[in-house]
Design a protein that fits this description.
This protein is about 45% helix and about 15% strand. It is an alpha/beta fold. Strands 1-2-6-5-4-3-7-8-9 form a 9-stranded mixed β-sheet, sandwiched between helices.
């Protein structure tokens, strides 16, 4: 979808489902598995034969108006946000292949002009220590210089450090948000978002103005891992959202890399140590990742 173009039929019905049931509702995937095309779901609703939804869900879909769909579409165009569904050629194949592919992705930047592969997700703690931040910056910069796309979750700490280092080295980076693209989160991060959109892409499956609910971040992690060829954990505590992303990566068959901790007794690295014990690939420099990618 490009600014000024008419909305394609398949996108219209995808937006209808997203407005009626919520953009990340797994019921949409269930319906598509059964009816194949979103248009078929709409027709079944009109005929009164749509099965498997509650009365509230059925009414919610019935109450979605053409005006609501057009308003969302036009609002995105005005903000420079493109919308893609799995029916679009530019939709990342790697996302189509995960267990729970997104119904839609909202993109700030030009998805059609960037290369996603080869790519590495660099993730870690929001309150990372200096060693972790420095390592994330150096490895991100070195990988970017070799043409590796850096993917992360746009949170403060390791994520932001990885994004900035990739941009500063002239590389390409992809940010996957746990809120809408127009929402200023983390606070005062609009400048970084603009920089990424100039040489990469900002992605969200949430409506542009959606606020960052805590559960959103675990949901978006499957996209961070799904887009990447491998995942580098810089710093993870015992209970960390970083481990959730690594878990998604493992289920998707991705290699998990872990920066070797500077202090094995530091509680901030308990999650990292656990991953290494479970067979993750230890990383001492960017060469460990580059060599692994070269073998695949």
């Amino acid at each position: 979808m490009k600014s000024g173009e008419l909305m394609e039929a398949h996108l219209f019905y995808r937006l209808w489902l997203a407005i009626g049931l919520g953009p990340v509702n797994r019921r949409i995937r269930w319906l598509l598995d059964k009816y194949i095309f979103p248009e078929a779901i709409f027709e079944a609703l009109q005929e009164g034969s749509l099965q498997g939804l509650s009365l509230n869900e059925l009414n919610s879909l019935k109450n979605v108006t053409h005006r609501q769909i057009e308003h969302l579409y036009k609002s995105c165009i005005e903000k420079g946000i493109q919308i893609y569904s799995p029916d679009d050629e530019a939709f990342p194949i790697s996302l189509s292949e995960i267990d729970d592919p997104p119904n839609l992705i909202f993109c700030y930047g030009n998805l059609e002009e960037i290369h996603i592969k080869p790519s590495i997700a660099i993730i870690g703690a929001r309150d990372a220590d200096d060693y972790a931040v420095s390592a994330a910056e150096r490895i991100s910069a070195e990988l970017s210089a070799k043409g590796i796309t850096i993917i992360s979750g746009f949170a403060r700490g390791i994520d932001s450090a990885a994004h900035r280092a990739a941009l500063d080295s002239g590389g390409q980076t992809i940010a996957v948000l746990g809120c809408g693209i127009s929402y200023d989160y983390p606070r005062n991060s609009r400048g970084l978002k603009e920089r990424i959109a100039q040489n990469g892409i900002v992605i969200s499956e949430y409506f542009p103005s959606s606020d960052p609910k805590p559960e959103n971040f675990k949901i978006r992690n499957r996209i961070v891992s799904g887009l990447s060829d491998g995942i580098l954990v810089i710093q993870a505590g015992e209970r960390s959202g970083t481990l959730n992303t690594a878990s998604h990566g493992l289920s998707q068959g991705k290699d998990i890399f872990v920066l070797t901790p500077h202090d094995i007794f530091d509680d901030g690295y308990k999650g990292s140590i656990g991953l290494l014990r479970d067979g993750a690939i230890p990383v001492y420099s960017s060469k460990d990742i580059l060599n692994n990618l070269a073998e695949h």
